[in-house]
Amino acid sequence: MLKVISESGFLISDKIINCNTFLKRFMGLMMRKSLNGFDGALITPCNSIHSFFMRMSIDCYFLDKDNRIVKIIKDFKPWRLCWIVREAQSVLELPAGYLKENTLSVGDRLSIYDQNKVSSS
Known about the structure:
The chain has 1 helix and 9 strands; from the N terminus they run E-E-H-E-E-E-E-E-E-E. By secondary structure, the protein is mostly beta strands.
């Protein structure tokens, strides 16, 4: 699981699945009725998305190589397609309305931590 924090220190979630392999990226949030046990997905690498076979609307935050938000799509409904976002390297997908309006905006930087890796600080 990943932990995602905004640059202001706001905890977005500590239950984000890491979709960083072909199979995990391919499946993403497709076919799920709910997000049992987690809050969303970070898809890496990724610069375009679709919601074919999805059963819920999502909010999408496209991130560049420095995890800065370069594009936001709110309430992305099932059976839609989003074309390439050139600057994007990854996409954070959360259930529609998960974050309050204006919690995050384009230009905000996110910190992403892999909770499975133990740091030796």
